[in-house]
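Please, structure for the following, as tokens.
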Amino acid sequence: MPLAKFLRTIERQSALSRPERLCIIDQALLLLEMNYVHLPLKRAMHAIDPIQQLKLLKFRLETKDRSKMESGMQFNRRLLEIFASLRDLHTLYLLPAPFKNHTAFLPFLIEQYFEKQGKKLIDKYLVTRVVDEFIDPNAGDKAAQFQPGVEVLFWNGIPIQRAIEINGQTQAGSNPEALFARGLDNLTIRPLDTSLPPDEKWVDITYQTSAAEQLTVKLEWLVYKSDDKPLTAMMSRKRRAAIDLKKAKINQVKREFFSPRDIRAGKRFADIFYSEVRRVGGQAFGYIRLFSFEVDNSNDLVRELKRVITAAGFPQQGLIIDVRGNGGGKIRAGERSLQFFTPRRIQPELFEFINSPLNQEICRRDPLYRPWANSIAEAVVTGATYSLGFPVSSEEECNNIGQVYYGPVILITDALSYSSTDIFAAGFQDNEVGKILGTSDNTGAGGANFWRYDDLRKALGRKSQSLFKPLPRDADLVFAMRRSIRVGKRDGRPLEELGIAPDHRHYMTKRDLLESNVDLIRQAAQILSTKPIYSLSIEPMKGGLRIAASSKVRPRDKRKRILRVDIFVNGRPHKTLNARNGFIAPTRVSLAKVKGKLEWSVQAFDHHNNLIAAARSQ
């Protein structure tokens, strides 16, 4: 449906009465004052006062004559601006019906790439997908030549980079990289329950063809009504989620209209990830493209990832995990997966509540949050702003399987990697699993798990009836309830706003956009090729184990080869196998004399006594 037609049909439905508006403001004030975990940080970093802004909006609404009350559209705009000032995609005002489940979009996608001109890198913008069926066949040659591969120069007469920057200022990116990435990602797809419809009914796109001819095409905004079920489900599950709802809705439209049809993926996890073998310089590398952590059961995703990376034929010499554009999902799904790639014990990230009487009551009532209750109570004495930190994923479940992949691993991120993907990347870095290669200078920096308005009402039971009133017309409020803080070398550092800086930076090329990220994968492979490759094979057999191990390192890294392998049985040292030139040939280790329950673990060490590979009985 054209946007102009949609707006005509919903003109009367979008009006909100004064009591309905006051109800939304009152509940937003309560959440931000009593529950919103990032309020002190946001006030400090952005010099804002959303509480005072809401109070002023309420005052003006109460004192204005009814006849002079601004339109429902303008009221929604003001609320969206206040929430956008927080720069937090976990904390949103979701517009009521009729905007709910509708998305405005243009029938094409734009992506950024960089080109060297002398010593400078110049950013350019390429059309990478076009849905021809939504382009007027009578629009002539200018529309016919608007195809993937053309370079966009202007948006309604504004230079395209500036148009992206302007759009980014209305988004909730936590840092400059995220603001720009949001401005680009949201440029042609705009969920209407998180942002108002575009002001213009159509756009004029000036582009340059491969023959250097400049043309302008007029394209009309369209409106798509999405299926609410997947997003309703992800918002209604247990309160351990961390997801970027706006990105999830954008990705839903991309899958519907722009997804390439030749990607091979298992049906059950087709929207979550796919794996393939990428060859660079004659060497095979495993490649996993993780679109989301939003699954019904995090254990299912963990099992499927393990199956894929240990399958016969999957390269064991190096693995590339690509989480660009991953808006998050289940925190446990990400954190539990980290154990597959390192011999070290995984320490999950920690989460804190802001100290308030309301949060203390919530934690006191629910056994799930009981660990936080005592420290919130202590704030009366200590004056602390935040509670103590406790993990969402238990340390036991983050280590109950152990390492299964022994080659080097690299993680690819961008400024749209957000929420539980931020938490996954933080865990990857904090637990020293491997290096991070970024196509941006930072991730989206969304360090929290979010709750819905209804989650609060349910958590407080009958007591909520006096505090939380039902929101009108299916409007909703979501907010960051617990903030994530780092562990390891960055212990105590908040993830929100600061994000994860990559170890290496890649600037996307035109070949990346048109040839399946060929230059990005090449750089990732070059980084992996400098890392040691280990293997550790444990074959249980009658009365013992057959153990083999190997190392492949650069000549300069000889001391990183395997020196020895220690075998432990039921938690006690049992035997040590010494390596020769980094190798241990298949060797039988007898366990015949061990009585009763048998649990074994095997650990490989290098010449620096660093733990470099491990396996254990399952």
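Residues 230-528 form a domain with the 2-enoyl-CoA Hydratase; Chain A, domain 1 fold (CATH 3.90.226.10). DSSP finds 19 helices and 29 strands in the chain.
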